[in-house]
């Protein structure tokens, strides 16, 4: 299979068009089940139908597009990534992997493989709207039900949001995977500095770091900034600020650990009022679970201490935990082989970012190919890709499918792994 010479341009053009589907004209913000998601679905459904694929939007809002295999009972290789973005995002996080999925089908030129290809555009991976990521991929595994009752900042439940979007929350089980899965393959921007520092265009993901996300609420007492003596204050922001610095200090002192307080809401939020309440997040990650789990209790205990010494109370709500997830050894080996076959270096690296592949890997062999992030930048409007690197990703992805097909063909289409 050879990607059409201007397949790279088709991919880049599609990403630019899709970047225009946003709730914030002039920047890219496309949260889970917001109106621009309808435009994304329409654009990709049209492309899929022009390729002769069957398409549907499942009950979780995932876009599903299938290119059947040679036999009626052929297993399915799932390709794809997520359609949602963070606020003020770049144009490639997630969506590039979905677009490349379609480009790889297009590059087949109508040829059927010994397995079906199903391109997945996950409806929700970032966890921005409901604070918990991976709703779309969890729905495929029948694990999204508990999230239906979660409420967004406006108080709308996920269930209500699905119905308002025109879906049927009650039909969520119909989104679950059926039939035999060969595996899951996701191409994604690296979102970090490693490939650029190595001067490489693509890399094979060894594992995805484990992570915890929490919501914390520091509750003190609002009072007059001018008349309240320091010893009588219960300053929620002073406690929270100590916590932010403690998280940074811990991560700086622990090799491979990252800790981030990315969201903070201060109430009542007036310059002459001592903050009575602060709600903030904590995102903490490490490639090795034992390191992350060893330092977490101490960090949360320090947050308790900063609160207590100021007469502030602290509530900690765990939002999610994902174990560090190794990618499938045979799929990794095939990806390395595919890169070598197309003449590319193929470094291996750990992903600090979470991905739907973490969820899919709990059910089937999963692999990821990273594409260089110029400047190591992501979750930022200047997020970029280089055209040559996209061409390399297409070449490796195409060769990966060929190697899988050869293997599946030799094992009668069963798990050749
Ligand atoms: O936050 C992450 O790890 C990814 O961008 N969802
Ligand atoms: Mn992201
Ligand atoms: Mn992503």
What does this structure look like?
The protein has 417 residues and is α+β, with helices and mostly antiparallel strands. The chain has two domains: 7-208 and 324-410, Aminopeptidase, CATH 3.40.630.10; 211-322, Alpha-Beta Plaits (2-Layer Sandwich). Helix content is 33%, strand content 22%. It is built from eleven helices and 16 strands. The chain has helices spanning 7-19, 36-50, 95-107, 135-140, 158-164, 194-198, 236-253, 289-308, 329-341, 356-360, 387-410; strands at 54-57, 63-67, 76-82, 116-122, 181-189, 202-208, 210-219, 223-224, 258-260, 264-267, 273-274, 277-286, 313-322, 325-326, 348-351, 366-371. The strands form three sheets. Strands 1, 2, 3, 4, 5, 6, 14, 15 and 16 form a nine-stranded mixed β-sheet that branches. Strands 7, 9, 10, 12 and 13 form a five-stranded antiparallel β-sheet that branches. It has a two-stranded antiparallel sheet with strand order 8-11. Strand 3, helix 3 (95-107) and strand 4 (116-122) form a beta-alpha-beta unit. Helix 1 (7-19) runs antiparallel to helix 3 (95-107) and helix 7 runs antiparallel to helix 8 (289-308). The radius of gyration is 23 Å and the shape is globular. It starts with 6 loop residues before the first helix and ends in a 7-residue tail after the last helix. Mean pLDDT is 96; it is low at 413-417.
């Amino acid at each position: 299979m050879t990607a059409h010479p201007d397949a790279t341009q088709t991919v880049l053009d599609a990403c630019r068009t899709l970047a225009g589907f946003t709730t914030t004209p002039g920047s890219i913000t496309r949260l889970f089940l917001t109106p621009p998601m309808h435009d994304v679905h329409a654009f990709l459904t049209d492309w899929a139908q022009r390729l002769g694929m069957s398409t549907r939007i499942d009950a979780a809002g995932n876009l599903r597009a299938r290119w059947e295999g040679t036999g009626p009972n052929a297993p399915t290789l799932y390709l794809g990534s997520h359609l949602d973005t963070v606020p003020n995002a770049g144009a490639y996080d997630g969506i590039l992997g979905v677009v490349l999925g379609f480009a790889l089908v297009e590059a087949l030129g109508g040829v059927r493989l010994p397995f079906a290809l199903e391109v997945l555009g996950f409806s929700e991976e970032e966890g921005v709207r409901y604070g918990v990521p991976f709703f779309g991929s969890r729905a495929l595994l029948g694990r999204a039900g508990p999230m239906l009752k979660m409420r967004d900042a406006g108080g709308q439940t996920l269930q209500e949001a699905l119905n308002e979007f025109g879906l049927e929350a009650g039909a969520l089980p119909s989104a679950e995977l059926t039939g035999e899965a060969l595996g899951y393959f996701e191409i994604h921007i690296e979102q970090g500095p490693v490939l650029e520092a190595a001067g490489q265009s693509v890399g094979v993901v060894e594992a995805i770091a484990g992570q915890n996300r929490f919501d914390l609420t520091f509750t003190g007492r609002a009072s007059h900034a001018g008349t309240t003596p320091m010893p009588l204050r219960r300053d929620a922001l002073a406690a929270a600020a100590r916590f932010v610095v403690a998280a940074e200090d811990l991560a700086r002192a622990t090799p491979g650990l990252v800790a981030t307080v990315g969201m903070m809401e201060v109430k009542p939020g007036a310059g002459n009022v001592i903050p009575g309440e602060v709600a903030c997040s904590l995102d903490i990650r490490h490639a090795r679970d034992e390191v992350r789990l060893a330092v977490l209790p101490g960090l949360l205990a320090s947050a308790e201490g900063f609160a207590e010494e100021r007469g502030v109370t602290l509530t900690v709500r765990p939002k999610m935990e994902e174990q560090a997830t190794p990618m499938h050894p045979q799929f990794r080996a095939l990806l390395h082989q595919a890169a070598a076959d197309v003449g590319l270096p193929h470094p291996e690296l750990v992903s600090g970012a979470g991905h739907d592949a973490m969820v899919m890997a709990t059910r089937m062999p999963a692999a990821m190919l990273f594409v260089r992030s110029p400047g190591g930048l992501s979750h930022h409007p200047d997020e970029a890709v280089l055209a040559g690197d996209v061409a390399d990703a297409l070449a490796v992805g195409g060769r990966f499918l060929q190697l899988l097909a050869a293997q599946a063909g030799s094992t009668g289409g069963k798990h050749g792994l």
